[in-house]
UniProtKB/TrEMBL annotation:
Keywords: Acyltransferase, Transferase. The keyword Magnesium does not apply. GO terms for biological process: carboxylic acid metabolic process. This is 2-isopropylmalate synthase. Gene3D superfamilies: 1.10.238.260, Aldolase class I. PROSITE patterns: AIPM_HOMOCIT_SYNTH_1, AIPM_HOMOCIT_SYNTH_2, PYR_CT. CDD domains: DRE_TIM_IPMS.
Amino acid sequence: MSDFSVNQFLEMAGTPPLDIEICDVTLRDGEQMPGVVFKPEEKLEIARRLDEIGVEIIEAGFPVVSKSEKNAVRDICNLGLNAKISALSRSRQSDVDVAIDCGVDMVSVFIATSDLHLKYKLHMTCAEAIRCALETVEYAKEHGLIVRFSAEDATRTDFNTLKKLYKKAEEYHADYVSVADTVGIMNPRTMYYMISEIKKIVNIPICVHCHDDLGLALANTLAGAEAGAKQLHTTVNGIGERSGNTPLEELLVNLRLHYGIDRYDLSKLKSISSLVERYSGVPVAKNKAVVGDNAFAHESGIHVAAVLEEPRTYELYSPEMVGAERRIIIGKHTGAKALKYITKKMGYDLEKKDLCLLAEKVKTASEFKRPITCDELRRLILDLKIEFVYNGP
Ligand SMILES: CC(=O)SCCNC(=O)CCNC(=O)[C@H](O)C(C)(C)COP(=O)(O)OP(=O)(O)OC[C@H]1O[C@@H](n2cnc3c(N)ncnc32)[C@H](O)[C@@H]1OP(=O)(O)O
Ligand SMILES: O=C(O)CCC(=O)C(=O)O
């Protein structure tokens, strides 16, 4: 039996096959989340885990940020991972030099191209910014690097200017052009349109780097991929600037369920999520898709009764698929069937009428707005003052 239920509308709606790769930027954009600092050894461990999952590219950092950042990027390059290692670089030869020093395979040369950024941040004309970027792309290529050219704030940039710039970057032998939706302004329809149009202009692969300011980063990334974008950017748990980036775990599960891409090891998603949660100090919301504590937790009596017979009734995909576990919670919404299951596991054999009485007690006891622990449940069973068979420890 499959690990997940199939969406019958995929075939009806027509779903294109995707030709994609993942570039995970947890160690760079993820770390730009205010307050997040990964220790060098933590960066290495995250890189190893990303490699085990099978992401094709790891953006290991932005080496000019600090000495320890540079060392960490270098150490990651020396790990001998399967993934290609990339570093971020401003459109400056000196930034590329530091990346080369680290031994990276790839460099992401970026320049902001929107009027807002040119005027208020770079204090450059568009022509000056383009010159800087192209010279840097050329320099990085001359030094044997794979080069991604990224237009920062691409989605708020005059589209004709942007298309010309991407074409130029291709002429300067960039290996990829990147659409950075830096402030998350896009929606799936506009992203699909934008990527489709860029695809008509350039023959090199396109990257999409989406931010979640409107909660659409994942949807926009998928829309970009459907339009033909090759390289999809992610961060573990979606950490990153402001509202964060496209979450790796959500994207990979979508790629599996909706597009049949099964080369990534999804069973490591829960553990990398917990690791990054711990290292970053950014708690994962309980109700977060795929890796939240409640992703496979059930309290409602009707749900639990069904899940105990067949988990797929209320689980789209199995917890095992992503390395998580199913949990049955006891609380206000618990019914007799759930209690039968839980009490049996605790060693009790209670009659139906006693389970109903126990359910009432559980509902009263859980008015303090929290789940009931097994110890509390045991006390409630004793409170019933009934006869029962106990086979527990
Ligand atoms: C969309 C993104 O995520 S972009 C990446 C953002 N990440 C970071 O900023 C990482 C953390 N940053 C840092 O540690 C520091 O800002 C550093 C080391 C990068 C630079 O530090 P400083 O030299 O002190 O510069 P400062 O931060 O004050 O200003 C940024 C400088 O970069 C320049 N700059 C910004 N983007 C680019 C670019 N793509 N290409 C060239 N120059 C750029 C700015 O014009 C400014 O230049 P100036 O100092 O000559 O005025
Ligand atoms: O496109 C990229 O590779 C990075 C740009 C970026 O981090 C952003 O604009 O948010």
